[in-house]
Amino acid sequence: MSTEKGSISINTENIFPIIKKFLYSDNEIFLRELVSNAVDATQKIKKLASMGKFDGELGDLKIKVAVDKEAKTITISDRGLGMSAEEVKKYINQIAFSGAKDFLEKYKDVDDKNPIIGQFGLGFYSAYMVAKEVEIHTKSYQDAPAVKWLCDGTTEYEISDIEKTERGTDIILHVAEDSEEFLEEARIETILNKYGKFLPVEIEFKEEVINNPAPIWIKAPSDLKDEDYIAFYKELYPAGEDPLFWIHLNVDYPFNLTGVLYFPKIKQDFQLSREGIQLYSRQVFITDNVKDIVPEFLQLLHGVIDSPDIPLNVSRSYLQADGNVKKINSHITKKVADKLGELFNNDRKAFEEKWDSIGLFVKYGIISDDKFYDRAQNFLLFKNTENEYFTPEEYKTKVEALQKDKDENTIILYTSDAEKQDAFIKGAKKREFDVIVLNDVLDPHFINTMEQKLEKVSFKRVDGDSLDKLVDKGLTSESVLGEKEKEKVEGLFKELAGNNVVQIEALPADDAPVSIVQPEFMRRYMDMSKLNGQAGMMGNMPTMYNLVVNGNSPIIAKMLKMKGEDRRQTYAKQLHDLALLSQGMLSGGNLTDFVNRTFEEMA
Known about the structure:
This protein is α+β, with helices and mostly antiparallel strands. It is built from 20 helices and 22 strands.
């Protein structure tokens, strides 16, 4: 054919500035789009061959990407379907007419084992984000002459016959001056690894295949071993520890969804990362921000989700609101809950051994998702200070006989720091009370949530008050102190306590003579403020506490019998400071034994 000139058919004036500046948020996307188009063309020829509509040799189907720094070009080559001159006019010159959609419509009744990626017909024009001129050299698999298409980024193009012997398409980008960073091989390799690491056709760059076209999430779980899952995890996160376990997603109705989600080991000081799960569409990387697809509490997981049914905007850069997103979100939550329930039921001991990491996911889920709680309550665990594990119902049964207050509320005593609160834990055990450990960063929120979920159950930290007040059975102990003696004791400690409350209580004689406790509501408020990033608001506020004096302690009796006000004040200060030390409110480490010895010596 002779050289032909014409105008590209578009429905929006000045489409190229829109593509370059607004359609795509990141100019590196051009390579994802062009390589994806090459994958489409390759998948199409494979599909036609499988249908008997192409009987030629498929040959080497690798997609090749090459950079010529001297010529200032980037070339993407495939041996796919190719195009005739008429197809070039149809699919290239008419912007937003998608060849992939046209192909799928034509062969819609055929099983799709080689899915087509392209959806919008605009991907090719992303080339003009970095190129001042683009050439297409293409030869159709059908008996048609090879053609060259040339456009400098205006609406004018040129198309002519060329000599090309092999089937397929070469896209040649003449890189603009402001985009010469893409002539660096390292830059191109980084983009290919980011977006094309798992594309379903081999991608060759610098004479090496740089992708894994058959990742484990497209395989049947029955064909995989534990080693395969761990190896893939290492491929995704080379520096990470081995995961605890994983969930293989494989859904084909009412939406298509595949993937593998891993439970990583989580440290107590974890940061909420929203980049642990990668989202793909037909093995093309889309984003690692999956907040609309995966529930917030499961964004702590790692792994891959792949779905062609996830609605993307036209540049495939972000998700759009859609009913399928909610369905996928709900399905993932259900699959995770089912997996945890299965692990708990099949091997409870192994589940308990992983609880320190699993517990964070479960608690986060319970805090943020009511439906998850409905599923999780059967495998949620409380761990006590004896390292025994109980479901909420098991634990309620265990403690309700001794830890039920006068209003028939079951009181769950807990410690947030078993070492620091050791003296209080020992006091609880003397009364045969049980204490659970709640020292996760999420536990302030978790406690509030559980009090709403569990009927007539209240959580109280073991050092939140005297035990007789924490588990208030409505009984009063007889005080050995008279009113004047109480006033005298209160006077001695009031000056030391400052604005804090001094409580003179009739406690068992062998309880500590002086204790520092913090009201539950105040401590929870401070803990939750820290968790919500509002610690600075609390910075100027003094630490509020109650100073509990055991009026029945022989040590307090001894103090009252001392002669000389100065001596009594010195003695009271020692008791007060020791109580502060035992709570870590003065410098010092584990001082429980030291405090106990000192109290004995003072007695």
